[in-house]
Write a structure and sequence with these properties.
Largest sheet: none
Shape: elongated
Family: Belongs to the UPF0382 family.
GO cellular component, one term: plasma membrane
Keywords: Membrane, Transmembrane, Transmembrane helix
Helix content: over 70%
Main location: membrane
Radius of gyration: 15 Å
Membrane topology: Multi-pass membrane protein
């Protein structure tokens, strides 16, 4: 994914993250238990942080010109879908087996940040 599509996807992830945060704070506060609300907030936090991460990656693409950054952006998006997505569904439905998917999203986040570091290290 090149820089322009990555910026678009990042902005949409951030837009959804802000909406999910507001929905959680105003629409779900009385419906979810404290534990489920905390899970919801964790999903929002990671979505917002990694949406900003995708924007940073898009900005770095022009500077470093590394294909590793394209992979990093794609992995961050995958991480948001798997990590935050599974936590949103868990908070809303109580479906516990989705907890097995969440670490895969976390691993995608870690791999993405490792690729960012590697791209910077390799840049001369």
């Amino acid at each position: 994914m090149s820089d322009r599509p990555l910026v678009i996807v990042a902005a949409l992830c951030l837009l959804i993250g802000v909406g999910a945060g507001a929905f959680g704070a105003h629409g779900l506060k009385r419906m979810l238990s404290v534990d489920m609300m905390q899970i919801w907030q964790t999903a929002v936090l990671y979505q917002l942080v990694h949406g900003l991460g995708m924007l940073a990656i898009a900005a770095l693409m022009a500077r470093f010109g590394s294909p590793l950054l394209e992979w990093a952006g794609a992995l961050m998006l995958l991480g948001i879908v798997l990590f935050s997505g599974s936590l949103y569904v868990l908070a809303l439905s109580g479906t516990k087996w989705l907890g097995a998917v969440t670490p895969l999203g976390g691993a995608a986040f870690i791999a993405a940040w490792a690729l960012v570091a590697l791209a910077a290290w390799r840049h001369s």
